[in-house]
Amino acid sequence: MNACRPTPRSLTPVLGGLLAGGLLLAAGPAAAAKITIACGDGGAADFCPALAERWAEQSGHEVDVVTTPQSATEKLSLYQQLLGSESGDIDVLMTDTVWPGLLAPHLVDLADYLPPDATEGFFPAMIDNNTVDGRLVALPWFTDAGLLYYRVDLLEKHGHAVPETWQQLTDTAREIQAAERAAGNERMHGFVFQGRAYEGLTCNALEWVASHGGGTLVDADGQVTLDNAGAAEALALAASWPGEISPDGVLNYMEEEARGVFQAGNAVFMRNWPYVWSLANEEGSEVAGKIGMAPLPHGPEGESVATLGGWSWAVSRYSEHPEVAADLVAFLTDPEQQKAHAIRFGRNPTRQALYQDPEVLEAQPFMGELYDTLLGGVPRPASVTGEHYPRVSNAFFNGVHEVLAGDATAEEMLQRLEGELNRLGRRGW
Fold this sequence. Notes:
By secondary structure, the chain is α+β, with helices and mostly antiparallel strands. 40% of the residues lie in helices and 14% in strands. It has 2 domains: 192 residues, 3-Layer(aba) Sandwich (D-Maltodextrin-Binding Protein, domain 2); 209 residues, D-Maltodextrin-Binding Protein, domain 2 (3-Layer(aba) Sandwich), CATH 3.40.190.10. The strands form 3 sheets. The protein has a 7-stranded mixed beta sheet. Strands 9-10-8-11 form a 4-stranded mixed beta sheet, sandwiched between helices. Strand 5 and strand 6 form a beta hairpin. Helix 7 packs across helix 8, helix 7 packs across helix 16 and helix 16 packs antiparallel against helix 17. The N terminus is likely disordered.
């Protein structure tokens, strides 16, 4: 394996302090092309650097890996600055499922560089999501849906079933938290989730609202659906959690902060993505063998709703080697690499056949059960709002954060936000 080395090409000042963690490096043997890829945040579940190095060794090309911010909001801001300046510093970008319409003008049509059958085997809806105006701007890498994690041992100990409604979760979390603290674990919390003002809070809050029958922010016809009793009820209940069944710090939690508390054994319930299952059950984890997963709770008359997530790979229009970059994208998303990603890290494949693969199901038994959840998940309103989606999401998660922090009531915020989004929508999604 080649030693890591600094990239000889300095990134533009646009990157500034956003490139958290600096540069990770993976070099292949000297070759005709050098490709720079923007991976994840360099954390434990980031398989991108290893796969990029594997591609370099097999292809004979060279690859530099740049880590990007953990926050999807900050990652998008970084991409927009780079692509807006037509910078060629990044060839391959890891893109969120809600970004294709926004970034499409800056991305190549992968169909120009890949064989005609390159999209076969993927979930059709995911290919549709990544196709903008007839152009295939990204290939899906892994997909996600929100899930409820729970402590099997604590529910059994205190005589509770897995909650089916958000109110049941609230009551059960409060009771077990109190009992565990009385028994000596002062750090026990009832429920942790992603409460920071960023895209992850949009995902959480959409699940709360939609599962209370409160709509999906903007419906398929472009109508804003926020100011209603179901949405207000959902957010009012969520506002009761911080400082009660959730730590005050939950208002600054992203995925990894929530996982850290839960995996340390200090939470009864957690909302997170499927990748946590493998990490929480690793040797040395405080909760290994003690946890279960279930669909998220719902409102009193609603149904369980899981926000769909996931990431894809795209090639910048400003790449000097788009054909080589597209080859790296095809490698990262091929069945072999997705299978390894699923087995090692619990990432949900975007190729349907892998959900029946015996080795995948042996390593990650929950994946077979997730298939229906993934098919029935609710998307964020990115397609209908197009390039305006970041403003819609920013307004929503900032408003929800106000409610969680006690700075506004749910009714006040929703009424104000509906007016703001209607004004934006009238100018044309």
